[in-house]
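During the second year of the project, the team shifted from modelling isolated chains to modelling whole assemblies. The rationale, set out in the original proposal, was that interfaces cannot be judged from single-chain predictions alone. As a representative example for this report, we include one of the complexes processed in the last quarter. Its constituent sequences, exactly as entered into the pipeline, are reproduced here:
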Amino acid sequence: MRKTIAAQAAYQMRLYLRSPRALVAAALTPLALMVLLAAISDHRAEPGYEEWLAASMATLGLASMCYTTLAASLVASRDAGVLKRLFATPLPLWAHLAGRVLATVAVALVQAAVLFAVARLAYGAALPTAWTAGVGLLLGAVALCSIGLAVAQVVPRGDAAATLLSSTLLPVVLVSGVFFPVDRLPGWVARVAEFSPLTHTGALVGGEGGWAHFAWLLGWTAVALAFTRWRFRLEPFTPGRPRGLRRSVA
Amino acid sequence: MIEIKNLSHRYRQSVALANVTLDVPAGQVVAILGPNGAGKTTLVEILEGFRRRTSGDVRVLGVDPGSSRSARDRIGVLLQTTSVEPQLSVREALRLYHGLYPRPRPVAELLALLDLEGVADRRAGTLSGGQQRRLDLALALVGRPELLFLDEPTTGFDPAARRMAWNVIRALDSTVVLTTHYLEEAAQLADRIVVIAGGRIVADGDPATLGDEDTYLALTNPGANCA
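Output from the structure prediction step:
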């Protein structure tokens, strides 16, 4: 089974590399924002600002790769009839999804590494060295991938994917300490931020420890995977057709 | 191979299949014929395991396709719509599926069989409709299936490609269930024709008696004769 998942991951990696624009956009956006914010932010002179900025932009990069790109790619495959066809083979769909997640997490981690390297070289930002930062990146990536898989099940088809994915991501990013540190958020926003997986990913990557952050990320992963399993769509939703096919991924 | 007893399926408002009973023995090539919306694809999708039926008993290769995927490695499927990632080349798609079956056919053999050698390194998204369909057929054959479901296999083919696909299908030793709109296709390929209209089997017999147009039209559109 390990070989099967590896083959599926290689296959997903090949798909990503065949449409490199999505990868480049997912990698360049946080980099470009980092450069801009480092130049214009009022807080840029404060100690630790560069480290905070690098951790924040790494978190944003994870979200755009693991959430947006993975979900959009899954929806595109579903639109192309690929998921339905794979269901008719001996391959368990969960192995296919695991391969997709694996490839996505690998790309996201490479992007984060590039971002930290640029922050180090350009701004002299200290690299995150705590083990919790590394595990936080990994668990954050897995949680965001899981949420991407779940949200892909409520996206009816490809033409709705871009709007749905970006309009769900942006407000979450704003309340999650990516652009404004969580401890400076006003009362109710801070309470909302507590629920966001990005808040906990960002905190861990930024060097904060604490089991609660891990628990939040694992919880999100579990809930998102359970939802994916429950509502998995093999076909795009077509208005006028009685029902899109939904099958358990088992 | 396939045993269907009193199979019914309803969508919210409408009855798609009503009390269908059908046995397909090993080695038989059965064509399921009927007008659009007759229930052909619903029937095949239930047999393939995509849809859970409303009621009735179904066994495919001895297992219930609604609850078990254990016979998947012995079944080949050609869906009505194409189903390959457009960024993959023909060869890559075949290799990928090759890796999913226990005793697969070699990729080179499939490329030759379906006359895809010339486009083996083209991306699936750039193929013509007929080439894409031939790739779908190659993917259906990669696992050396005992049982093959072909949902409108030659739609979009020019006459030469259709002949070629027929020759390929005829040379198989699998049991085949195919749906089609083309009477000629059913007559050419099938040992047996099952005509479905309005979710019911209205005729079941050999191509010699059911394969002509007048009989077919009378069966699927009985009102036409009264006019």
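The radius of gyration of chain A is 18 Å. Residues 2-231 of chain A form one domain.
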